[in-house]
Amino acid sequence: MPTEEPGEQAEAGAETTETTVTLGEILQQERLRRGLSEREVADRLHISMYYVKALEANQFEKLPGAVFAKGYIKNYASLLNLDASELIPLYEEISRTQSAVAESELGNSTRRKLDRNKFWLVVSVLVFVGGFTLLWLYNSFVTEDEVDAAGTRPSPGLTQTTAPNAAAETVSVSATPQVPRPSPVVSTEQESKPGSDTNFIAALAAIADGNSSNTAPSTPIGSVIAAGNREIDALAAAVASSLENTRLIEIGSGGEDLLRITFSGESWIEVNDGESRQIYRDLGAAGDVLEITGNAPFNILLGDAPFIRMSLNGTEIDVGAKIRIDNSARLTVGL
């Protein structure tokens, strides 16, 4: 059986080690070999020590952008007498991997948000369709029944008269034969129809005003509106209840800077402190308040940035200027 020579085995092991070394490790090892500190490198490259740490930790999302990142890498390589053309491909590979992970997390957050909103959309549609159907049934059947009950179609053998107090009296026909004579019959069609229209118009006005108390509860339309308003009140109470489920999240990481983040909607958030340590990484809901105490600067990744308000040590931070086309944002505060 063929075997590898010791020299070949050593060469294969060296190649494996070389492929596993990252860009940040190459820069850090060469810096230490030359006896340079992070502060000395930052001073010579005219950048902050925070960016030096980000380069050596492969945390390129903390840099201002791809153009700046490549410039920093080239200058760092020149300082350490390294070949920048070999380091730039390593940066691009790591950057693509980090972008894919961030987009995957953002997509999962968006899908969860859509699933939650789907329920309220279905409930709203059902309430609207139910209210429209009840109004149509009223116009088709209830109005006709009210006209019949008011006396527009008098029963045989009965006559109606009106008293001064507008109370209707019914007089039975006598069994004794009498000379037929015309009986005064007062039609109530003109009296009941306006009253029905008045009730219907008042009901519609109550719907427009959003106040069912102006509708007479004794009329059928009053019952319909009351039932519809009960469904709407239940829906509003459910929405208000979900908004009231707020929580205060306090994170202490041993520092004096206070970062306060308020959520008006669901948003993914990731926060790292000035020492390149991850402080917080989770999905926030509407009404949540996140307070982080640590050392600035803070590097922050937001999934749905329009739902975020942020302040550092009481000073409001403009998140809107950093929002991308997909509503995400990446920013560093406290530099």
Number of beta-strand segments: 11
Q: What proportion strand?
A: 15-25%
Poorly predicted runs of 5 or more residues: 1-18, 154-179, 181-196, 211-219
Domains (count): 3
User: Could you give the distance between the termini?
Assistant: 63 Å
Structure, described:
α5 runs antiparallel to α6 and α6 runs antiparallel to α7 (189-209). The protein is α+β, with helices and mostly antiparallel strands. The protein is built from eight helices and eleven strands. It folds into three domains: 6-82, lambda repressor-like DNA-binding domains (434 Repressor (Amino-terminal Domain)), CATH 1.10.260; 119-153 and 184-244, no CATH class; 246-333, no CATH class.
Task: Summarize the topology.
Layout: H1 6-20, H2 23-33, H3 38-45, H4 49-56, H5 66-79, H6 84-150, E1 158-162, E2 168-172, H7 189-209, H8 220-244, E3 248-252, E4 257-263, E5 267-272, E6 278-284, E7 289-294, E8 298-302, E9 308-312, E10 315-317, E11 329-333
